[in-house]
């Protein structure tokens, strides 16, 4: 049986493993955020229904597309990407919402989840700088931009 060729991209295996582990946490947060947003899209009601229904759809669609980018970066670093609810449950920092909250409570939960996902991404930068890992830094910079902007837009709905 042939072994897979060794990965020689200029980042030692130990550093790649730490980065892949951090990205696995980001993937779990991102999936949890995706699922929460899609759930709220299905279940939102009230006077802001149309606005939130459409907004949530745009957000979960963007989030869905990001999952593949994060998982593929983990694979490019040479490690398996987590892909089960059990794995995501162990890795995520986002608390699951039970029941069906009122519309503005949904928005509050999503602000918290967007910010949590941004913090998870930001926590990786010291590892990336040490490893000189620009592709992962670029991915995380793009993700941070999305999460911070989305959190701001959601927070704007909560202002009186």
UniProtKB/TrEMBL annotation:
Residues 22-159 form the Ferritin/DPS domain. Pfam families: Ferritin (PF00210). Transmembrane segments: none annotated. InterPro entries: DPS_DNA-bd, DPS_DNA-bd_CS, Ferritin-like, Ferritin-like_SF, Ferritin_DPS_dom. CDD domains: DPS. PROSITE patterns: DPS_2. GO terms for molecular function: ferric iron binding; oxidoreductase activity, acting on metal ions. Belongs to the Dps family. This is DNA starvation/stationary phase protection protein. It comes from Rhodomicrobium udaipurense.
